[in-house]
TrEMBL record:
Coiled coil: none annotated. It comes from Eutreptiella gymnastica. This is EF-hand domain-containing protein. Pfam families: Ank, Ank_2, EF-hand_7. InterPro entries: Ankyrin_rpt, Ankyrin_rpt-contain_sf, EF-hand-dom_pair, EF_Hand_1_Ca_BS, EF_hand_dom. ANK repeats lie at residues 5-37, 38-70, 73-105, 106-138. Keywords: ANK repeat, Calcium, Repeat. SUPFAM superfamilies: Ankyrin repeat, EF-hand. It comes from the Eukaryota. Residues 165-200 form the EF-hand domain. SMART domains: ANK. One of its GO terms (molecular function) is calcium ion binding. PANTHER family: ANKYRIN REPEAT DOMAIN-CONTAINING PROTEIN 39, ANKYRIN REPEAT DOMAIN-CONTAINING PROTEIN 39-RELATED.
Length: 239
């Protein structure tokens, strides 16, 4: 099978959400950064479609997390992950080296797009990772200005101008817990931290906390990783 044919099949498998085929084609030598006729890479497509495991595999096989697509909008994978509300993918892309303040053709950063589409959790994650809240697009608008356009509730709008928990603070809080040998903490530790951490402004029952943990981790086991913990801290501190 010619390499060009493998690249084409890789795009088809990605667009169809066929993780097994994507993994197999990558092992066989398909180019992780090959572009389709629209100038879009597989990493871009997987990030847009919310295919987390596929994103991980593509990056493992060398996909460039900072690459912009070759069509008119010039978005990165992080742009489309934020636009579509894929928290886990956006977080993984940032952890893998994606530029948090990358600009597309309209000079929109991922934070602009998160705000424009009301992605509250993502906006907080981006700010916590150092996103520039005063970045200006082609129309002279900041992320908070796009929030106003989308009629986002005032409590979210205020949060753009408020100090959020930094990565260093999150790591300190996580390490202060009883961390298991596998690098995770238990739900019980999450409950304890919620009771003790003064920045939580909302009273929640243990059942509500467990429901949030299950929603974020997509599991019902007794394990919360640091990446999941970071997202949980943002969600549990908001009304």
């Amino acid at each position: 099978m010619a390499l060009a044919e493998k690249d084409e099949l890789l795009h088809v498998a990605t667009s169809e959400g066929d993780y097994t085929a994507v993994e197999r084609l990558l092992v066989q030598g398909a180019y992780a950064d090959a572009e389709d006729e629209h100038g879009e890479t597989c990493l871009y497509l997987a990030s847009e479609l919310g295919q987390y495991e596929m994103v991980r595999s593509l990056i493992k096989f060398g996909a460039d997390v900072e690459r912009t697509n070759a069509n008119h909008d010039r978005n990165t994978a992080l742009h489309v992950a934020c636009l579509n509300g894929h928290v886990d993918i956006a977080t993984y892309l940032i952890d893998s080296g994606a530029q948090v303040d990358a600009k597309n053709a309209q000079l929109h950063t991922p934070l602009h797009l998160a705000c424009l589409h009301g992605r509250k959790v993502l906006a907080n994650i981006l700010i916590g990772r150092g996103a520039e809240i005063h970045s200006i697009d082609m129309d002279g608008q900041r992320p908070i200005d796009l929030m106003n356009v989308s009629h986002i509730p005032e409590d979210i709008e205020r949060n753009i101008g408020r100090c959020v928990v930094s990565d260093r603070q999150l790591r300190h809080l996580f390490d202060s817990c009883d961390v298991n040998e596998n690098g995770s903490i238990s739900r019980r530790e999450m409950h304890r931290l919620y009771d003790e951490y003064e920045q939580f402004g909302v009273v929640r029952t243990k059942w509500e906390i467990d429901e949030t943990i299950t929603k974020v981790t997509l599991r019902k086991d007794d394990r919360v990783t640091f990446q999941e913990f970071s997202i949980l801290m943002l969600q549990l501190s908001k009304a």
